[in-house]
Amino acid sequence: MPKMKTHKGTAKRFRRTGTGKIMRAKAFKSHILTKKSPKRIRGFRQETVIADADVKTVSQRMGSK
Q: Are 6 and 62 in contact (CB under 8 A)?
């Protein structure tokens, strides 16, 4: 059986931490920012951990266990 290829779109969107968690960027930060509060916009800068339901799928597509 051939090796699994990394899904490059997934690899660009997620990253794995040293402890093995998978991090993602926040949504809604790219445009129409005038109606969003400065506090909310600052919050978009931080990454967050992906949902438990998505861990298996994203891990497989990143080519890691």
A: yes
49/47 Cα distance (integer angstroms):
7
Contacts of residue 61, defined as CB under 8 A and 6 or more positions apart, other chains included, come to: 6, 7, 10, 11
pLDDT tier at 65, thresholds 50, 70, 90: low
* Token pair in block for residue 49: 């951990």
3-state secondary structure (DSSP) of residue 22: strand
Question: What letter represents residue 14's amino acid?
Answer: F
Would you place residue 3 in the very low, low, confident or very high pLDDT band (cuts 50, 70, 90)? confident
